[in-house]
Amino acid sequence: MRNIAPQEGLVERAYWLIRLRWIAVAGVVLTVLFVEKVVNVPLESFALYAIAVAIGLYNSAFFSYLNRIRKTNPPNPATIVNRVANVQISSDLLSLTALIHFSGGVENPFIFYFIFHVIIASILLTRRASYFQATFAVFLFISMVNLEYFNVLRHYSLKGFIDSSLYANSIYVSGISLVFISTLYLAVYMASSISVKLRQREKSLEEANLLLEEKDRIKSNYVLRVSHDIKEHLSTIQGCLDPVLQELTGELNSGQKDLIRRAVHRTGKLTFFVKALLEITRIKLSREIEMSRFSLRKTIDNTVNFVEAKAKDKDIAFNYNLDPGVDVIKGAQVYIEETIANLLANSVKYTPRGGKVDMEIRDRGDSVLIQVSDTGIGIPKVDIPNIFGEFYRAGNARALERDGTGLGLAIAKEVVERHNGKIWVESVEGKGSIFSILLPK
Ligand code: ADP
Fold first, then answer.
1. Does residue 372 line the site of ligand 1, with CB under 6 A?
2. Of the residues 86, 120, 278, 398, which has the fewest C-beta atoms closer than 10 A?
3. 376 C-beta closer than 6 A to ligand 1
């Protein structure tokens, strides 16, 4: 089986280890207190607390080191974090050995906590490194047990818990060591087999995802080329039809005029559709969109002017309220303007005569909340989850308005997400809709 080093998410896992260690520090302190005060077994509490403090100190050091790595963003963070994880696990094994030594050595039932460390190693590290850590754990354990057995190191008994001197009993010590070693290696074997398989699956999913993204790019490039060509041809057709309709090429009878007018109308609609298609494809293909600081207040004024006239034509009451705190934000002005105009235009389009459309722009500290609400036809519940999808139009909208690209909301979503914002809708069919955009400043 291939030995894949865990790359992605390694930093997160290293932070996870740090969080676990804080729990361990608290666990040591509480266990010492419990054993001494409740179980009444005297312990070397000074040494045990000192080890807990040492664990806390090196945990803080690892925490700030990881933060630094994250900030400086070095070229090979995975290698560095891998090394840090190795050092962290080795330090934990040393600390655990010290804790066990000062609290009964081989007689302490917590010796099996070494298993947790080798399981963590198997999750975080490569298989080889996990076996290395398990061997290090075995080395520490066997050294401690033997040094105590041969009285090179003092043995601290757990008086009141285990009174007999098992640490000096060669059969007990050998038996425990054998079980300990086999358990540790079995744990590494099982845990690392599972995590290697999971990593391989994760990797193949990532590869499949990259492939899909690449295919999507190829498709988008194709759509871009084709729609660009179509747009050129359409504009030539429009250029030919206009003078004919204006009778610059000779007088037309009413039948001819009607036919040409219909052709111009349809060409206009098609051009509008192709432009929307070009736009969404361009945004999707561009890895980054250019952003600058601009006044959202002025941008909103522009869009409002455009919508007010349309609302008036349909006898729709349009009101808007702009929080005085809202002004300059960072983003792609043209796209933001277009997105807001699109929501307003939709509200006017899908609200019957005599209805109401309102826009509310509120300051939310780091972001701005833009809400467009209407008393229109609303969106059927079944359509709401798909409404931001490309070319999607709800049945009631089709019935009311035959023409529509189904691209406006898809573009709006793409634009908002490129700004790290959120867009959503709340709607009741027959009552109206509220479209909301949360845009970081
Ligand atoms: P289009 O309006 O061209 O159909 P959009 O992408 O702008 O395309 O909108 C997609 C669909 O979302 C619409 O077809 C309609 O079903 C629904 N929709 C959008 N805005 C509203 C609204 N204000 N009220 C009701 N339905 C809406």
1. no
2. 398
3. yes
